[in-house]
Amino acid sequence: MVEGQIEGDLTLRGHLTVAEGGSVSCDAVEAESVTIAGSLQGEVVANGAVQLAASARVRGNLKGSAVTIAEGARFSGRLDCAFELPQELGGSTREARPPAPARR
Fold it and tell me: Are strands 10-11 and 23-31 parallel, antiparallel or unpaired?
């Protein structure tokens, strides 16, 4: 858990939490999953989920299997994840990704 200030790249095998009041400035953060309640500047790459709390301030690209951005969070960057828009925003009821090919 980051509760203070860190500058430099981070690579973790587990979960990274940037607590409210915590600050990370880096080129890249790599972790299994990431929760941000403080501020982060840089690219985030997670094998699992990336969650931005309402107090989060993020400037950089996010990549994860799922990204959640709470109301009130500030985010400036690019998202790279699989998602489907709700129908009222132009989404459909069909599957967002084509099915994976069968393995032999």
Answer: parallel
Q: What domain range is 24 assigned to?
A: 5-89
Instruction: State the amino acid at position 57 in one-letter form.
Output: R
Is 24 in contact with 3 (CB distance < 8 Å)? Answer: no
Tokens of 97: 């990704």
**Number of domains the chain is built from:** 1
Write the Ramachandran bin of 21: left for phi over 0, alpha for psi from -120 to 50, otherwise beta: left
How remote is the C-alpha of 54 from its chain's centroid? 13
Residue 86 has pLDDT above 90, yes or no: no
In this prediction, residue 87 carries a pLDDT of 81
Classify residue 96: in a domain, yes or no. Answer: no
